[in-house]
Amino acid sequence: MALVEARGVTKRFGGLAAVSEVSFDLQDGEILGLIGPNGSGKTTLVNVVTGALPYTAGEVRFRGDSIRGRPPYEIGRMGVSRTFQIVKPFRNLTVIQNVMVGALFGARGGAATLSEARRRAEEVLDFVSLSHRAEMAADGLNVPERKRMELARALAMRPTVLLLDEVMAGLNPAEIDAAVALIKRIRDRGTTLIVIEHVMKAIRDLSDRIMVLFHGEKLTEGPPAEVLSNPDVVSAYLGRRYAERAGA
Amino acid sequence: MATRSSAPVVIGALVVLVLAVAPMGLSPFLTQFLINLFMLAALAESWNIIGGFTGYASFGNVAFFGIGAYTTGVLLSVLEWPFALALPLSGLVAMAFAALVGMPILRLKGHYFAIATLGVAETMREIVYNLKITGGGTGLTMPITKNPLPFFYLMLGILLAATVVNWWLSASRFGYGLVAIREDEDAAMAMGINAALYKTAAFALSGAFAGLVGGVFAYWITFIDPEGVFKVITTIQMIIMAVFGGMGTVVGPLLGALVLASVSELLSTHLVSLAELFNGIIVILVVLFMPKGLADAIRKREFSLRQLARNLREYRV
Amino acid sequence: MLEIEQLSAGYGEVQILRHVSLRVEAGEMVTLVGSNGAGKSTLLNAICGIVRPTAGRVRLDGTDITGWSSEAIVAEGITQVPEGRRLFPQMTVRENLLMGAYRRRDHHSIERDIAAMYELFPILKDRQRQRAGSMSGGEQQMCAIGRGLMARPRILILDELSLGLAPIMLDVLVDALQRVHAEGTTVFVVEQDVATAFDLATTGYVLENGRVVLSGPTADLRSSPHVKKAYLGL
């Protein structure tokens, strides 16, 4: 049984289907890359899988249990965590306090005491190399640090499945390499991941498989080399400059 | 989520000071002033739970105060129950009402929530005005008690309880959840916080304390009517004191009440007609120069002119 | 057209830019690239009057605009397409475009320019009555560029246009911007995506730690070993 099973998932807003008949399996321990043009339904799909939005039709199962009708906090407690495309820091708290919220309320209810939550938070901050900023106010961080804090917060929840929504946006090549290495370490520690990205270098390095969405539908899925050279994917998403560069 | 260390110290000092002073026979005027101060501070601390910690600025908390007052009023003057039973019930009824009303109303955000809560308070006044059992427009009269001291200790007790609850919020899992909701409700939900439940609980707690205060108030003042206990200005006062002192902090509302009530009293004895004006000016100045409230400024010891100017620029005045 | 001479600037006690000099000649498309924290935003803030430089000059067509207010600078003809688009989300696409023309007095030409925007970005015409906030990132970027162009600026500055956009969307924008440039607009592209920046511009400057470390034709910069390693990940 796959960790997450999606069958014919459809999400309509009025007459418009943001996601249409999307089916996929997420296997335990894999990194699934999710790519597609803006507006293709990637974030909507994430919202559906994390319960932030109810789905109009189809079925999503986590470990065999349907998530239909469950509010986001329940799904968070079931072990599914996410980051947001536009980061949502708790601005008036310090970095470690931000991460403590994740530790306090995460999978299976989270830590029982504040001191245990603090311990977990310190550990996670160390893992993402943000310890030196622990006592800083969250809104004093720069862009890459904010993304790392957002990631740390989600990790502190001890998720089984982690959905990352464009964590690489705005990072330079060195920072991207560091982020890719970090994400791989997360997988090695036992978390399964879905990664949405526009940074092709990262998606290529990270993904075991890639799924491509286009206008809300699944265009194709498969190993990176195959998907990224698929002519339909090039014309729908990668564009000619990417193809030129890849060819050269 | 800070100042956990100073709050108990301040509370402790306050308690010791006040309890030491009271038996020495304060003037009736001072006793009255202090009871009123404890009442305002307790209301500010109660508002802080939903407004400061949870970030839902309710403009209708006087509804719970009034419900508490009328619960005591009806039980005491109409049904002739003892006060010892009436007071707890005042808190419980207000709490239940807050929970019930909270469930639908907390789905609203920001301005809509503010207006809706304001509407609730106004509606309660009208309902009470039109009911027979509450005495309608004529109001209710309680049995008279000569000694103000019990009310002194009761109000003080409620104030302490409300402050302790605030202190607990600043250092507990539940409190973290509320603050997370305030900072970003969507993120909070994604992280496993049952926002609907937490918000409603905070609202209910807030209502409970306001109701208890109302109950004591009713018996103390011996006469209540709809106009008197469902005043919009009561909510405004709670909010101003909490914001002035520092909303979301433990001692902020206390400080705010202390300073504003004292200043207000001083001004009205010396400058009767201009008291309101000066009150307003002081509040404006503090909001401009110390946007996070008095408590925050004191904690950071930020009183230099440069810091004040920086605040002005930072908050884009 | 735009001349920045030995510009230094920062926030409070923190110095970010040090002696930055660069030129954008009239009719050119020039790019400034650099990572997060290199000082690109600070430079733009200094040009557009949000931050007062501590040293150096900013000149627009010979006029010294250093330290001017943002309103005066915009009136002088500098328009910026901000990072993150910053559209008016509740307004429609058309209304956003009209807002771009806010300062203009030649009302009769405004409709013609809007039609030109629809021609440049056909999808905007389809979405003209749609609320800008409900569009996808790429569509928003087109609307933001359109809004900037509606001001008929002397120089158009693009801040991080590639952020969060799909590769194919960048292709569309690169093509559109090249058209805009070909029609005579001076463009200054401040960008982190070096590959896209060099596809667009003929002249480039590389900013690191508040200093310009490299400059020249982008064709040359592309083959610089430092640029290849640090910015193109090659």
| Strand residue percentage of chain A | 15-25%
**Mean pLDDT score of chain A:** 92
Poorly predicted regions of chain A: none
Number of strands of chain B: 2
Give the chain pair forming the largest contact, with residue counts: A-C, 31 and 27 residues
How much of the residues of chain B is beta strand, in percent? Answer: under 5%
Task: Enumerate how many helices of chain A there are, as a single number.
Answer: 9
Structural class of chain B, by secondary structure, is mainly alpha
Number of helices of chain B: 15
Strand order of the largest sheet of chain B: 1-2
Return the string of H and E elements of chain B.
Answer: HHHHHEHHHHEHHHHHH
What is the helix/strand order of chain A? EEEHEEHEHHHEHEHEEHH
What about the largest sheet of chain A? 6 strands, mixed
The amount of helix of chain B comes to over 70%
- Major sheet details of chain B: 2 strands, antiparallel
Structural features, described:
- The complex is a heterotrimer of chains A (248), B (317) and C (234).
- With 248 residues, chain A is α/β, with parallel strands linked by helices.
- Chain A has helices at residues 42-49, 72-78, 95-105, 114-127, 143-155, 173-188, 200-206, 224-229, 231-247; strands spanning 4-13, 16-26, 31-35, 57-62, 65-66, 80-82, 161-165, 192-196, 209-214, 217-222.
- Chain A has a six-stranded mixed β-sheet, sandwiched between helices. A four-stranded antiparallel β-sheet of chain A has the order 2-1-4-5, with helices on one face.
- In chain A, helix 3 (95-105) packs parallel to helix 5 (143-155).
- The N and C termini of chain A lie far apart (42 Å).
- The model of chain A has no long low-confidence stretch (mean pLDDT 92).
- Chain B has a domain at 29-231.
- Chain B has a two-stranded antiparallel sheet with strand order 1-2.
- Helices cover 38% and strands 26% of the residues of chain C.
- In chain C, the strands form two sheets. A six-stranded mixed β-sheet of chain C has the order 6-7-8-3-9-10, with helices on both faces. In chain C, strands 2-1-4-5 form a four-stranded antiparallel β-sheet, covered by helices on one side.
- Chains in contact: A-B, A-C.
